Amino acid sequence: MKDLNCIRSKKAFIIDMDGVIYHGNKLLSGSLELVGWLEKNEKSYLFLTNSAERSPLELSQKLERLGITVTADHFYTSALATAAFLSTQRPDGSVYVIGEPGLIQALYDAGFTMNNVKPDYVVVGEGRGYNLEALERAVKLVLGGARLIGTNPDLSGPVEDGIVPACGSLVMPIEAATGRKAYFVGKPNPLMMRHGLRRLGASREDTVIIGDRMDTDIVAGVESEIETVLVLSGVTTLQDIPLFPYCPKHVLEGVFEIPA
């Protein structure tokens, strides 16, 4: 289920981060070599992550600490995609946010103001600010008319010592309490994939997406008609693949297989 020559022939690469490049603060095998190979072969590449916690600059600095030098323009997050989407829906609107500085900054930069009384949107991402008080306020605001937005639908995410709840799981209590369904902007939403392709300046035929999740990365590629590569270094195992009604084009143990 893999054709390395096909993968290597692509001009543009969309690459997930958690479970593909690193687990928490642990760099995964082949990540440094992959970036070196992309640069050497003059490939266009974009780290497209459903994480909304950090800004592109912070992600660049994190990779720098792990030993990989990549400039901030090579990163695109679900926080940026969420801010871009909301700015087309309600320019200069207001939001109540449960999330980290990367999400809040993206919304500020898109012209939104913070509002915990009567906002246009309640926006939920991952973060330590998620607690019972924030949950109660979010429920009250959604029942009061605010629209519920999730940065991504991931139910869990990989860390160094296992799995932790992600945005999809954190939104569920608000949905259950209000009877309102959230709109998720991150992968597999085709909006985020189109943003990525525009950033790369590439066509879908010339692009490959590399990820560790069947339910976000791979389905995003399938629905966007982009060549898909599943790596088994994150959430999805080989035994999980038959549980889904779609399949990846290529399956690799990790990104270390890609550099020639």
Can you describe this structure in just a few lines?
The protein has 260 residues and is α/β, with parallel strands linked by helices.
Structure commentary:
It is a single chain. This protein is α/β, with parallel strands linked by helices. The chain folds into two domains: 4-50 and 187-257, Rossmann fold, CATH 3.40.50; 88-184, Rossmann fold. It has helices at 4-9, 31-40, 56-65, 78-89, 101-109, 132-143, 167-178, 190-200, 214-224, and strands at residues 12-15, 22-23, 26-27, 44-49, 75-77, 94-98, 113-114, 121-124, 147-150, 156-159, 162-165, 183-184, 207-211, 227-231, 250-252. The chain has a six-stranded parallel β-sheet. It has a five-stranded parallel β-sheet with strand order 7-6-8-9-12, with helices on both faces. The longest helix has 12 residues, at 78-89. The chain starts with a helix and ends in an 8-residue tail after the last strand.
Question: Helix and strand layout, with pairings?
Answer:
Layout: H1 4-9, E1 12-15, E2 22-23, E3 26-27, H2 31-40, E4 44-49, H3 56-65, E5 75-77, H4 78-89, E6 94-98, H5 101-109, E7 113-114, E8 121-124, H6 132-143, E9 147-150, E10 156-159, E11 162-165, H7 167-178, E12 183-184, H8 190-200, E13 207-211, H9 214-224, E14 227-231, E15 250-252
Parallel strand pairs: 1-4, 1-13, 4-5, 6-7, 6-8, 8-9, 9-12, 13-14, 14-15
Antiparallel strand pairs: 2-3, 10-11
Helix pairs in contact: 4-5, 6-7
Number of helices: 9
Q: What is the residue-averaged pLDDT? A: 94
Distance between the termini: 18 Å
Order of helices and strands: HEEEHEHEHEHEEHEEEHEHEHEE
Strand content: 15-25%
Order of strands, main sheet, comes to 5-4-1-13-14-15
The best one-word shape is globular
User: Are there runs of 5+ residues with pLDDT below 50, and where?
Assistant: none
CATH architecture of the largest domain: 3-Layer(aba) Sandwich
The counted number of beta strands is 15
Share of helical residues: 25-40%
Biggest β-sheet description: 6 strands, parallel
What is the class of the largest domain in the CATH system?
Answer: Alpha Beta
